[in-house]
């Protein structure tokens, strides 16, 4: 009865090329996500050699904007004729 039991490890087939590609692609994607999260969390110090940006003149930076009627405030159609 003890000789009937097979305790050898099951045969696992070798991974195919596409399975390997998927595995390494997932690893690269995870590393990229970790880098992106660390870039958000860890601030990058500004270098002292960089020249400060010149403040823009307020009058020059403001441009008149054209008034665009919004979709909710359309002019009502006149149903009656003007006499």
Q: How would you characterize the overall build of this protein?
A:
- It is a single chain.
- The model has no long low-confidence stretch (mean pLDDT 77).
- This protein has a domain of 29 residues.
- It is mainly alpha-helical and 83 residues long.
- It contains 2 helices and no strands.
Keywords:
83 residues; mainly alpha; 2 helices; 35% helix; Mannosidase beta like
Summarize the structure.
The protein has helices at 17-41, 58-61. The protein has 83 residues and is an all-alpha fold.
Total DSSP E strands: 0
Distance between the termini: 111 Å
Give the uncertain stretches in residue-range form: none
Element pattern in H and E: HH
Question: What is the average per-residue confidence, as pLDDT, rounded to a whole number?
Answer: 77
Q: What's the main sheet like?
A: none
Helix share, percent: 25-40%
What's the number of helices?
2
Beta-strand residue fraction? under 5%
Name the shape in a single word.
elongated
Rg over C-alpha atoms, rounded to the nearest angstrom: 34 Å
């Amino acid at each position: 009865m003890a000789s009937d039991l097979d305790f050898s490890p099951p045969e696992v087939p070798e991974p195919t090329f596409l399975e390997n590609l998927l595995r390494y692609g997932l690893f690269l994607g995870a590393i990229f996500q970790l880098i992106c999260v660390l870039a958000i969390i860890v601030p990058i110090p500004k270098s002292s050699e960089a020249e400060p940006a010149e403040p823009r003149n307020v009058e020059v930076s403001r441009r008149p904007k054209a008034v665009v009627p919004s979709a909710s405030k359309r002019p009502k159609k006149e149903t009656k004729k003007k006499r």
